[in-house]
Amino acid sequence: MHETTATLSDGPKTSTTPSFGLRAGTLSPLETLAQSVSTIAPSTSPTLTVPLVFALAGDGTCLAYALALGLIVLVALCVARFARESASPGSLYEYTRCSLPPSLATVTACALFFAYAMTAASVIGGFLNYAYVFLGRFGPHVPATLLACACAAVATWVAYRDVKISARLMLWIETVSVVLIACVIALTLVRHGLHFDRAQFDVHRMSFGKLRVGGMLAIFSFVGFESATTLGAEARDPMRTIPRAVIGSALLAGAFFLLSSYGEVVGFRGSPTTLAASTAPMRYLAAQVGVGFAGVVIDAGVLVSMFAATLACVIAASRVLLLMAHNGLAHAGLSKTHAHNQTPAAASLVAGIAALLPAVVLAGRGVSGADIYGWMGTLAVFGFLTAYIVTAAALAVHVRRQGRLSAAGLALPVSAMLAMFVALVGNLYPLPDAPYRYFPYVYLFYLLAAFALCRGGLGKVSDPE
Question: Among 176, 306, 349, 444, which residue's CB has the most CB atoms within a 10 Å radius?
């Protein structure tokens, strides 16, 4: 029986917690970091999200990402504070469970599972979008539902097979893609002259309302940075490696997004096609700097990165579901792990199906991959923001119980709560156009239904031993 340390307590003393049948201590610090990086899927933002943010914020795109980075760092510091004292596959759910009433912990668990599943559905949509770019004239002969099923099935199989193989695969995929994009951005800046583009930071020429909405959309580029916390039972020295992975992934991704957004706005200045209207911005920029082949390679990397993000989300969702089952919030059968692979076999299958269903249904109804990416991504943001807000509140309670309550101690969780609440309101007001205006109701319906099922004793508490 493998054990990891430790669980949250009211004092400095820690205790051991079971590994829940997972392969304890198998992931290196770099492989643990790969989980968070792959869930963020940084290579997809310059090609899909940055143009959408530019459509809202214009020259304020880089500032919008700076705003989003500031908000995410606040939450990352809260999560890292917990992660230094607790190692569990339950992620943010475990942190809230040990500090807040059971009902709020249940809300966090339901919101987090939903967020990971919808993020996976979103990137399956992105996978479809780029798959048809490469299929070209053969595209009309390949059903979108078949491509969606293939992406979800392979990701679920890898997650089912071996978490170590999964982590290594995700790490290499994202590294290659990010390096290529950074090279193209660097060449773009050199081509336009290494000057400071003042227009991108002239707040007097920007609309605060559009900058705020753009900043809220930019948050989607970061969501999932905390997913390394789901590897609490599998990471080596988790109370050191996981906090570093959480903060490191947020900062590394933030720096990459700032560079990419700044470079893309500079690169498209004066071009016949605006950044907002471009369907393949990196391919255009690569052609402009004389390395057109790199654009094709980047698009291929983004396609594979979509698969890696699907895989990372299935891994994270399955481990949240595993702990939910152990605590009686899901069917007890989902608490079992594979005898040989030491992965949450049943939970991985459920997570894969939950990710596939919305994507395959929408694709079957003729919805484009780009729309699936945007729609499911918007739904995912609601789940993440809910979990982030409750986690920040849990930290405030945790600090108080440990007798470390002070103005300085409260500043971090309170600031994080307020920042995420503002972000949540920013997704609701001003009222967006259809179908986005209906998504808050879809999320609320899910949350109420899932909460009722969980609190109604859907499963029974399982023995982690």
Answer: 306
pLDDT tops 80 at residue 296? yes
Compute how many other C-beta atoms are within 10 angstroms of the C-beta atom of residue 102.
14
Q: Which residues contact 452 (CB under 8 A, 6 or more apart)?
A: none
Query: Where is 5: in which H helix or E strand?
Result: strand 3-5
- The CA-to-CA distance between both ends of the chain, in Å, stands at 7
Q: Which residue has the tokens 């493998």?
A: 2
* CA Rg value for the chain: 21
Cα 271 to the center of its chain, rounded Å: 32
What's the gap between Cα 58 and its chain centre? 24
Q: Which one, of 253, 301, 439, lies nearest residue 358 by Cα? A: 439
Burial (0-12, 13-18, 19+ Cβ within 10 Å), 296: middle
Type of residue numbered 382 = F
For residue 16, give the 3-state DSSP assignment: strand
Question: Can you give the pTM of this predicted structure?
Answer: 0.87
Bridge partners, 27 (sequence order): 235
Q: What is the pLDDT of residues 30-89, one digit of tens each?
A: 888 888 888 898 999 998 899 989 988 999 999 999 999 999 999 999 999 888 887 777
Q: Say if residues 88 and 233 touch (Cβ distance below 8 Å).
A: yes
Q: Given pLDDT bands bounded at 50, 70 and 90, which one contains residue 336?
A: confident
The three-state secondary structure class of 330 is: coil
224-38-116 Cα angle (round to 5): 40
CA 32 to chain centroid, in Å, comes to 15
CA distance 183 to 157: 33
Return the closest-CA partner of residue 267 out of 27, 437, 50. Answer: 50
Amino acid letter, residue 107: V
Per the CB < 8 A criterion, the answer to whether 196 and 203 are in contact is no
Q: Which residue has the tokens 């109604």?
A: 456
Residue 193 sits at φ, ψ, to 5 deg, of 85, 130
> Is the distance from CB of 228 to CB of 16 less than 8 angstroms?
no
d(C-alpha 458, C-alpha 451), whole Å: 10
How far, in Å, CA of 166 to CA of 170, rounded? 6
